[in-house]
Structures are given as structure tokens and as C-alpha cells.
Amino acid sequence: MSENAITRRSFLAGSAGVAAVAAGAGFLSFNAWEQADARGTSDIDHYTAHSLCNSCSSKCGFTGYVVDGKLGKMIGDANHPNCEGTLCGRGYGFASIAYNEDRLTDPLKKNGGKFEKITWDQAYSEIAEKVKAIIDEKGPQALAMVQDPRPSGSYYTKRFMNALGSPNVYTHGAACNMSKNAGFTQVIGTGDFTSDVANSKMTMFIGRSYADAIKPSQLHAMQKAHENGAELVIVDPRLNNSIAFADEWVPINPGTDLAFILAMAHVVVHNKLYDASYIAENTVGFEEWADYLKDCTPAWAEEITGISKDTIERLATDLATAAPAAS
Questions:
Q1: What does the pLDDT read at residue 102?
Q2: Domain assignment of residue 105, yes or no
Q3: Are residues 289 and 225 part of one domain?
Q4: Together in a domain, 314 and 195
Q5: For residue 294, what are the contacts with CB-CB under 8 A and spacing of at least 6?
Q6: Nearest residue to 204 via CA among 42, 284, 317
Q7: What confidence category does residue 71 fall into, taking pLDDT thresholds of 50, 70 and 90?
Q8: What is the 3-state secondary structure (H, E, C) of the chain?
Q9: Separation of alpha carbons 144 and 132, rounded Å
Q10: End-to-end Cα separation, the chain, in angstroms
């Protein structure tokens, strides 16, 4: 353990804004718990502890099996909505970080082009001095913090920055969720929605792969849809791992998703495959949009997307036919 490594006690006593855990050594195999149990409990300290995975913002719940102070196995919570009993590969691999010999356990300060270890007290003092100097010179509005959107960070980061007088807190959501939710709110009146993929008749994934994503529960839903006979299509420049459950791969040219979607919309509108009563009761500007779509033909999109016009027309028709159980 580093001479500067912070402990739980010193972290709480210092009320600092950065947490670290001292590194161990080695990573036990998945059967370490069973081996320890077979040897008996007289000379082996082994127990279970419940926690949340920290490898992404999904925070899947799991039970950890600990042998001699080291995490040996992780079992996902069956009732956690994001994992449903199964952790992803990243979740299992994340546990090994605690025992990696290259894990950082000290603050590092750049000096002459190289990083050198410093103490936590020095790091906190220098950061505090710089923050105070910025506030004195330019005001708290000149401060900003970019954070990982985990629950604890979401709470404490805002409290910390608000205490300094700055509203400038950013996450990846500024470039991801925020723009998505703003668009949804303008179009469907709500910032988010849930798609019942498991019970759909057809689901098309455009630039999205559940098998490469971060919520095992989503992959479970895709598997159930496949088992239920749903038509599953992946539209992606690469043949992603979701092909294990998908019926068709449509290799689209990168960056041409919008042309593909407009051409499908052209098919739906031109062939009157939409719900006319719903459009009349719930939308504004449909006629103007339909007029714009006249030039967005499958033949037009074929030149841009690399997807044949026949495929575009077939997929659009299949989606419309599967409605409302289409996604």
C-alpha cells in the first residue's frame, strides 16, 4: 500500500471531494469462494457483501463473495431492473481494478513533463488555493466541474459547486441525454419513454446494439423477443454482437441514418400506412412534413446509405404492419 493511500477513516475525517481505495494484489478466480468454503472456516475469512457495480452509470446490484479480504466472485441481483441477475463483462472485469498493480493510489502532479506522487494533503491544499484565487479574480461563475453521472457524484458535485456559488456542473448528458430528451419532449410531449422490446412484433436497432450495451436486462428483452418470434433488424455499419438474436443485418454507410429514416417515412406516408385518425388528433404540421418527404424516396436514399431501395421499402412496410407492437 502506498504511504499516501487514503483510508475510509481519513477520507471521512477530511471531508474531501475525491475518494480512493488502497490497492491490493492479485485477483481471485470465480471459484475461489467454493474453494475456501471447501477448506472450512477455521483459517479462512470469507463472507458476502452487497453492493452496486461502479463500472458505468447503470449501477447494477450484486452480491460479492470475499475471501481473505479479496473479492472473488460477483453474482448479479435477480431483482435489480438493470441486470436481472446477470452482470455484463465490464462489470465482472471492473472488480479486478482493485487489485491491479498499475492502479493509481496517489495524487499525481505534473512536474517538468513528468508526473510525480504527492500527498493528499498537498493535493487538496493546492486545489483549494487555485479555486479561491479564481473566485477572487473572476468570480465563482468562472468555475465548472465535469463529473461522471453516478448517483453519489450527482448529489455531492452539485452541493459542492452550489456552495462555491457556481451553477456550472456538466456530465455526458449535455451531449447525450439532454439533447435526446429535449427532442422527445418537442415531438411526443415527454422526455423519455420505455419500449417493450420483449413483446414487440418487430424491433429495428439503428446504431444501437443491446449485446454491446451496458444493461444486461436489455439483452434479456432482446432474447425474449427473439424467442417469441419477433422480427429483429440491426442497422449498423458493423456486424455487431446483437446478430446473435437478430434476423437481419443492414450494413448502412456511416453517418447516413437520417436519410434511411426519411426514406422509410416516405414509404409509410406515400402508401398511407400510418394511423390517419391519430395524426389528425395529435399532430401539427403533418401535411408540410409529408410534402417534404416526396423527394426522400428509397431510390434517393439508396445512393446515400448503400441500402437497396427494395430493402428500405420492405423494412418500412414491415414496421408499419407490426404497429403498434413495433419499435
A1: 87
A2: no
A3: yes
A4: yes
A5: 266, 270
A6: 317
A7: confident
A8: CCCCCCCHHHHHHHCCCCCCCCCCCCCCCCCHHHHHHHHCCCCCCEEEEEEECCCCCCCCEEEEEEECCEEEEEEECCCCCCCCCCCCHHHHHHHHHHHCCCCCCCCEEEECCEEEECCHHHHHHHHHHHHHHHHHHHCHHHCCEECCCCHHHHHHHHHHHHHHCCCCEECHHHCCHHHHHHHHHHHHCCCCCCCCHHHCCEEEEECCCHHHCCCHHHHHHHHHHHHCCCEEEEECCCCCHHHHCCCEEECCCCCCHHHHHHHHHHHHHHCCCCCHHHHHHHCCCHHHHHHHHCCCCHHHHHHHHCCCHHHHHHHHHHHHHHCCCEC
A9: 13
A10: 51
Phi, psi of 56 (to 5 degrees): -160, 180
Lowest mean pLDDT among 94-108, 145-159, 244-258: 145-159
* Model pTM score: 0.70
Query: What does the block give as the cell for 147?
Result: 463529473
* Complete edge-to-edge strand list for the sheet that includes strand 202-206: 202-206, 231-235, 248-250
Q: Which three cell numbers stand for residue 198?
A: 420483449
- Give how many domains the chain has, as a whole number: 3
- Phi and psi at 70, nearest 5°, equal -120, 140
91 and 210 belong to one structural domain: no
